[in-house]
Write a structure and sequence with these properties.
Blueprint (H helix, E strand, L loop, with lengths): L2 H25 L4 H12 L6 H5 L6 H11 L8 H18 L2 H17 L8 H13 L14 H4 L2 H23 L4 H6 L1 H13 L1
Helix pairs in contact: 1-2, 1-4, 1-5, 1-9, 1-11, 2-9, 4-11, 5-9, 6-7, 7-9
Length: about 200
């Protein structure tokens, strides 16, 4: 896998987290496997490659398709909220990168979750609550805050709130990986076609 493909997979993980946040907030629905994959990205903090984190490209199909839809030229496929979440997560990733104390706090929180995984599954409500707590205690203090829009009946559900916050943490973590692979926000504007073409090639594999 070449560097561009690795970058696109990491960026697709950001889009997948954003897509799931939108789905939960607007309909209360989400794919359990897609959620689990995003959360794996939080727990694997020292990978040798992007595939060590997410596996083969087809596991990120939801994120790859969201990337194509959002960056493509067909306006009716775009969803403003998803694009807004992606932009916000990448922006906060940049801020987090300059805050070593907060990075350490997040790393300590992740270690506590690892210990919890000896007793609970990764998508268990207790684990999700702890991951959400890491986000609330750290990244949510950065500005601008990510404001999630959706239906009140879903946004007032504590389990959904935990899933959304855990996914925002996962999206920002994927943004860290994307940056480590050489990804930069300007590429989304100026290398859009290359990103889309690569994502489509990965979807076709």
């Amino acid at each position: 896998m070449n560097r561009t493909e690795e970058q696109v997979l990491a960026l697709a993980a950001v889009f997948q987290a954003a897509q799931l946040v939108h789905n939960i907030a607007s309909s209360g629905r989400y794919d359990e496997d897609d959620l689990r994959l995003c959360l794996q990205g939080i727990m694997n903090t020292d990978p040798d490659s992007v595939q060590d984190v997410f596996g083969p490209p087809d596991t990120l199909r939801t994120g790859l398709q969201a990337l194509v839809n959002q960056l493509g030229t067909t306006a009716n496929q775009r969803q403003v909220e998803i694009a807004r979440y992606v932009i916000a997560m990448l922006h906060l990733q940049g801020k987090l990168n300059k805050n070593p104390a907060m990075l350490e706090q997040i790393a300590n929180g992740i270690e506590r979750v690892r210990a919890q995984l000896e007793h609970y599954d990764l998508t268990h409500t207790n684990v999700l609550a702890n991951l959400a707590g890491i986000y609330s205690d750290t990244i949510s203090s950065l500005t601008p805050k990510i404001m999630v829009n959706g239906e009140e009946r879903y946004l007032s559900n504590p389990d959904h709130v935990s899933r959304i916050r855990a996914l925002l943490l996962a999206g920002i973590r994927a943004g860290v990986l994307w940056r480590q692979l050489g990804g930069r926000r300007w590429q989304i504007l100026f290398k859009r076609k290359r990103l889309i073409d690569t994502a489509q090639q990965l979807l076709a594999k």
